[in-house]
Amino acid sequence: MTETSYRIQGATGEWEVVIGLEVHAQVTSNAKLFSGAATAFGAEPNTQVSLVDAAMPGMLPVPNMECIRQAVRTGMAIDAQINRWSRFDRKNYFYADLPQGYQISQLYHPLVGEGAIEISPDDKNPDATKTIGVERIHVEQDAGKLMHDQHPTRSYVDLNRSGVALMEIVSRPDMRSPAEAGAYLRKLRAILRYVGSCDGNMEEGSMRADVNVSVRKPGGELGTRTETKNVNSVRFVMAAIEYEAKRQVEVIEDGGRIVQETRLFNVESGTTRSMRSKEDAHDYRYFPDPDLLPLELEEAFLAECRSSLPELPDAKRKRYESLGISAYQADVLTAEVEAARWFDALLDAGAKPVAAANWTTSELFGALNRTGRDIADSPVSPAQAAELLALVADGTLSGSLAKQVFEVMLETGDAPSKIVEDRGLKQTSDTGAIEAVIAEVIARSPNQLAQYRGGKETLFGFFVGQTMKAMGGKANPAVVNELLKKALA
């Protein structure tokens, strides 16, 4: 789906949707942003709270430099400007799960400036790309969580998330369709997971998106936007955009006007509803945090961050394509970091790139989907897969026998050579044995033989199939073809 192909059809004609995303990504680190408290998911309420997180009097924040390092590495991964000088601000508002009465964030001087992410909105055409601008990445602390289901008349507060380090990654309003927004979010998640700065687990809340949507006549002035908060899956982000864009068109065409507001997405109904009017920056009374010195990054720190970056998805995809792997397969293999690492290990074990890509994207991924497993839980290791592919390449196994061996590998975890030996599955190229079987097949198929010799050449496949069947699939297909041509001549 291209930028110009997605339009909302209204009563007054076509409308264009303008989309920007603010993604909150929980930083992978050993502790919270300003304290040493743990951040493990699923811990008992209020068991991962330091005195700093609980805002006890006299407690002062100290920046966790691992969180800063991960945010800088993320900025470098999208070729963003890294600001050597940045500053923390206080965002003041009252909420029961915010013990300090303010959130420490970065409004005026963020850690990371402008960058860009290249997306492929059309899965079937990964070469059709679009660049989405990233305005900034700043680090901030998360709030706690209100629990409304613990008591019939009271709400409880869990401060385990209070102070957890977040990167807020703010895009430009460059997306023009739900598909583009979905592609952007998937690509961003992939980059974060390659870098190791966020696990990207949207179900556990370690990555979530605020979705900004407005509509306008194609090419017209920007409309008033709404912000749908805390959407926690790619599918829901796309659904929220689609619903909100259509809702705004209906409001405008009915003579109403769009109010700048914060909305919530209802997963069950696929609709959004108003939560509160949208505040501006001055409503939060931002000012520099007096307890924190500005961050000043040294060149040695930046050099270490840069040198620690792995091969990123786009570079890895191009490398795969240079090995003869198709653009589509390269895109599939690099979409998830675990799959890319598994495939790299397969290549390192000596597998031929094209054969390895064909087998991995069809046989392995198909089997994992069928059994409900992730690549990390694959019962077949890259070394075992390389051995299996080598047995096919040297003629020990035919394609059909390789499938049989692979199924046994999935069940037992045994090496392919052991399975071949134990079960007698080795492919035969013994011309004498194959010739004997061919003679039997021809002898019991006089009608087909006469038709073949009479010009019906499509029956050649019949004789190949009968021969392979008689030999239990263990005959070398190339040898069978060669001997059959001689025998049928």
UniProtKB/TrEMBL annotation:
Subunit record text: Heterotrimer of A, B and C subunits.
GO biological process, one term: glutaminyl-tRNAGln biosynthesis via transamidation
InterPro entries, per the entry: Asn/Gln-tRNA_amidoTrfase_suB/E (IPR017959), Asn/Gln-tRNA_Trfase_suB/E_cat (IPR006075), Asn/Gln_amidotransferase (IPR018027), Asn/Gln_tRNA_amidoTrase-B-like (IPR003789), GatB (IPR004413), GatB_C_1 (IPR042114), GatB_Yqey_C_2 (IPR023168), Gln-tRNA_amidoTrfase_suB_CS (IPR017958)
Biological role: Allows the formation of correctly charged Asn-tRNA(Asn) or Gln-tRNA(Gln) through the transamidation of misacylated Asp-tRNA(Asn) or Glu-tRNA(Gln) in organisms which lack either or both of asparaginyl-tRNA or glutaminyl-tRNA synthetases. The reaction takes place in the presence of glutamine and ATP through an activated phospho-Asp-tRNA(Asn) or phospho-Glu-tRNA(Gln).
PROSITE patterns for the chain: GATB
UniProt similarity note: Belongs to the GatB/GatE family. GatB subfamily.
Keywords, in A-Z order: ATP-binding, Ligase, Nucleotide-binding, Protein biosynthesis, Transferase
The protein's Enzyme Commission number: 6.3.5.-
Matches recorded under Gene3D superfamilies: 1.10.10.410, GatB domain, N-terminal subdomain
PANTHER family from the UniProt entry: GLUTAMYL-TRNA GLN AMIDOTRANSFERASE SUBUNIT B MITOCHONDRIAL AND PROKARYOTIC PET112-RELATED, GLUTAMYL-TRNA(GLN) AMIDOTRANSFERASE SUBUNIT B, MITOCHONDRIAL
Species of origin: Sphingomonas taxi
Pfam families: GatB_N, GatB_Yqey
Ranges of residues in domain Asn/Gln amidotransferase: 341-488
Protein name in the entry: Aspartyl/glutamyl-tRNA(Asn/Gln) amidotransferase subunit B
Superkingdom as given in the UniProt entry: Bacteria
GO MF assignments: asparaginyl-tRNA synthase (glutamine-hydrolyzing) activity; ATP binding; glutaminyl-tRNA synthase (glutamine-hydrolyzing) activity; transferase activity
Top EC class of this enzyme: ligase
Catalytically driven reaction(s): L-glutamyl-tRNA(Gln) + L-glutamine + ATP + H2O = L-glutaminyl-tRNA(Gln) + L-glutamate + ADP + phosphate + H(+); L-aspartyl-tRNA(Asn) + L-glutamine + ATP + H2O = L-asparaginyl-tRNA(Asn) + L-glutamate + ADP + phosphate + 2 H(+)
